[in-house]
Amino acid sequence: MTLHQTQSYYRAMKVIYKITYPNGKIYIGKDLTDSINYFGSADSKIIERDFTREQRRDFTIRKETLWESETASDNEVNLKEVEYINAFKSNDPAIGYN
User: Fold this and answer.
1) Which segments of 2-72 does DSSP mark as H helices, in order?
2) Considering Cα of 73, then 84, then 44, then 13, what sign does the dihedral take?
3) Which residues contact 85 (CB under 8 A, 6 or more apart)?
């Protein structure tokens, strides 16, 4: 591995992502480490109410990266998250889980 590849490997990509649930509702979140298996911190109790026991047995969600940066500060990422929450209206309970 070259020095450039090593530096790129250890530099965490900061991302804003959108989770889409089977009912079409969304959650917008941020991840400062770009973890492939991080799916946000939406309130599980609220989400659980939207699905029956049967629906929960086979459950697929989609995670899309909406924005990414290697150089943005944490504050810039926070502001970008709010921008996307407002743009997608995911804080409206009829639309999303923010």
Assistant:
1) 3-10, 44-49, 53-56
2) negative
3) 28, 91, 98
What is the C-alpha end-to-end distance of the chain, expressed in Å? 41
Residue 55's contacts (CB-CB under 8 Å, 6 or more residues apart) are 22
Q: What is the pLDDT of residues 76-98, one digit of tens each?
A: 999 999 999 999 999 999 999 99
Q: Work out the burial of residue 63: count CB atoms within 10 Å of its CB; fewer than 13 is exposed, 13-18 middle, 19 or more buried.
A: middle
DSSP β-bridge partners for residue 15: 31, 68
Domain boundaries, given as residue ranges, for the chain: 12-88
